[in-house]
Amino acid sequence: MIEPTLIFEHAHSLKLMVTLGVAIALLYWTIYQHVVTLSLQRIPRVGKDPGWFGLDLAAAKKEFAKNGRQLLYDGYIKASKYRNGLYRVQNLNVERVVLTPKYIEEITRNVPDGVLDMTDGLKERLLSSQTNLDIVFNSSLHIDVCKSQLTHNLHPLIKPLNDEATYWLSKRIPCETQIRAYEVMVRIISATASLMLGGKTISRNEEWLETAAEYSMDVVRVAMALRPWPAFVRPLLFPCLPGAKLLEKHLAITKKCFKPMFVERLAQVQSKQQAEKSVDMVQWMTESAEGSDRDPNVLAHNMLFMALAGVHTSSATTVNVLFDLCARPEYVGPLRKEIATTVKEHGWTLASISRMKKLDSFIKESLRLNQAFLMTFNRRVSKTLRLRDGTIFPRGTYLTMPSDSVARDPGLYPNPDEFDGYRFFDKRMSDKAEANRHQFAPVGPESLAFGQGKQACPGRFFAGAQIKVVIANILLNYDISFPAGQTERPKNIYIRMAWCDRIRGRAWCSCRRRRRVLNVYERGSIDLRNIPSDATVCPNPSIAAIINCDVGPMKEWYIPSSSRKARQVVCTIPTPAYPIEHVRHKFSLFPDQFHQLRALLDRSERRQPPSCSLDCLHS
């Protein structure tokens, strides 16, 4: 039998060993960070110096939390003025060296692969080893697929994106109401993004949509809670956090929704028996995955990361565009006219939304003044890096670019603090040779919102198309404004370099569905199958209408109305043997009659016709 005193002595020795190990680890980490800091001493600093061995680190972080945006801007102006192009700042995570546009070309084009890795910066920010994201970062599959298949398949996605945006807007904003702008838009963006991820099976799954909307913020909250603690303590602390259970729940829901899809698609690809390939991320990843990436669990985990990467940033941009439209209603008319004219002539295609140049300019200007992140191109130097001017960045240095400060540079943008919705439209019109550079998605020294170089945001072209489709639908179908008495847009809140969704609880918009088709002073045509059930047919009691259906059996329907003023309507549907020019009937059609007609068309025994529309004329 072991003596109690021996047990006590053994436990005491173990405690001393653990304490000594912790002390050595802390000392090593402190000395290493100090060596890195010493090697960067010649680079000017903005904000409070953390001091020797980080004695004033808490005060430096507190200053950045209070005034980080201004610190970054002041440092940028000084660095640009004195042409040194570099400065340092202590943010809430680590000390970063901030690169001005002077270094962009050299950093993004001439630095060898493997020296500056995008995933290292993301791992540091999201604490991937604790938040279970290492499984995604250990592979470049999601990046490769976004760069290739997603970008090259935008055209067939636009019409489905429009249909999905119409569906969810009518569901989330069915009538005149006030909405919490962020809470509604993050769910619209989640749905349209999910359509790209896995089709309607995913985009109409409420459980998944809630995960897509909330996951990114839950990850950030967990990372923020763990960050003050040393790295070796975090794995012990993580299971105790409330957010840990939420992350596990999100992952379980993701696997429940996506894993069966991947299993089925993998089997189809393996057997080469897939009749028609789907246009979605599940299909592209299934075809591109190799080795360990073919595990359905890993593939499903990639879908969760896609939601993290795209939903919050696109939602923030969409909400800020709405606020700018509410604050500047003089833009609504011209933008609405451009959208309506383009859609009428070209439909919903990639080419048509590319023709919406004023809308593109308005969205880009809104993003310029309301960046999702104060800093982009966050990288960790994995090998010592020497620049042409002799500047040396030792291994472990964190680099970044001041996207928000560059966007407010008076040397790049005249009157930078003033909103000019046509700023980039005018540049495109006056500089035809460089017109593409002034569109929403391209990156360059003047536009850092999506990062820079080969590792710029790979999904930015989809994000631009998605935001344009959602905003275009809102402008066509709703009148939006701030609540009564409010004229200025809510001020942005930035926490830890990022636009904060705390704005969600206090930022409201008033939305009223516009009367559909529906201006009787305009000729137009609508697809009966795409009209929401709550749509208003016309602003007057009746309109002159013509029903056009180019295929289907001969039918006559009596369509009653609750209105005493309505005429009895008999609608004759044409057949190929009875051409449409002989079947057109003019009649007065009340709103309730219109919806009955639509229902009858949907319930008819024939297949849905390729063209079934209501042409509205002034009566």
The CATH class of the domain at 134-370 and 473-513 is identified as Mainly Alpha
The count of strands amounts to 19
As a percent range, the share of strand residues is 5-15%
Rounded mean pLDDT score: 79
Describe the structure.
This protein has about 625 residues and is an alpha+beta fold. Among the domains are: about 1-40; about 135-370 and about 475-515, Cytochrome p450 (Orthogonal Bundle); about 525-615, no CATH class. It is built from 22 helices and 19 strands. The strands form six sheets. Strands 1-2-3-9-6-4 form a six-stranded mixed sheet. Strands 14-19-15-18 form a four-stranded antiparallel sheet, with no helix packed on it. Strands 5-13-10 form a three-stranded antiparallel sheet. A hairpin with a 5-residue loop joins β7 and β8. α8 packs antiparallel against α9. The longest helix has about 35 residues, at about 5-40. It starts with a helix and ends with a strand. Mean pLDDT is about 80; it is low at about 515-590 and about 600-619.
